[in-house]
Design brief:
The protein is mainly α. The chain is 62% helix and 6% strand.
Length: 156
C-alpha cells in the first residue's frame, strides 16, 4: 500500500480530493464524522497537507487504474459526470435549475457556468489523449460509467 492514489507521491488527483476533503477535515461537525467513520481519510488529508517535497514513484498504469481509483471513478460515473452533463444542458437551454436524481434522491440547483467549463475541459483533455492511452483507459472508464460522458461528441 502507498500513501497516494497513483503511487508513493501525490498527484493532481490527490490535491483535487484534498481540496474538497480538507474543508470537511477542519469544520467541526464533518470532522467528527470523518474521524469516526473514515479515520484513514482524515489521516490522509492531514498527511497530504504536509506533502511538499515528496518525490517518489508512480504506479505502473495497470496498477494505477484499479483499487481506490476505480472506486472513485465509479462515483464520478454515477454522480459527478451525470451532474456535469445535466448542468451543461440546463445552462445551454437557459433553465433556472438543474434537476436530477442523485443516488435516488431529488437534487436541484441553479446551473453554473464554471461546471460547463469543467466538463468541456475534461472532454477536451480526454480527446487530446493519444489512441494508446484512450485504449488503455477505456475498460475502466466503461466499467465505471465515465466513458459515455467523456467520449460524448467525439468518435473515440
Amino acid at each position: 500500500m502507498t500513501n497516494y492514489l497513483f503511487g508513493s507521491r501525490p498527484s493532481l488527483a490527490d490535491f483535487a480530493w484534498f481540496g474538497q476533503l480538507s474543508e470537511m477535515a477542519t469544520d467541526p461537525t464533518p470532522m467528527r464524522i470523518m474521524r469516526a467513520r473514515a479515520p484513514f481519510t482524515d489521516h490522509w488529508v492531514r498527511r497530504l497537507d504536509d506533502a511538499s517535497g515528496v518525490e517518489r514513484e508512480w504506479y505502473p498504469r495497470e496498477q494505477a487504474l484499479g483499487g481506490m481509483v476505480e472506486e472513485l471513478l465509479k462515483i464520478a460515473g454515477e454522480l459527478y459526470l451525470p451532474f456535469l452533463v445535466a448542468n451543461q444542458e440546463a445552462f445551454a437551454n437557459a433553465l433556472d435549475q438543474v434537476e436530477m436524481k442523485v443516488w435516488g434522491l431529488p437534487y436541484a440547483l441553479a446551473p453554473f457556468k464554471y461546471q460547463v467549463k469543467c466538463l468541456t475541459l475534461l472532454r477536451d483533455r480526454f480527446a487530446a489523449l493519444d489512441a494508446d492511452s484512450r485504449a488503455a483507459l477505456r475498460p475502466v472508464l466503461e466499467r465505471t460509467g465515465c466513458w459515455q460522458h467523456l467520449a460524448h461528441g467525439s468518435n473515440r
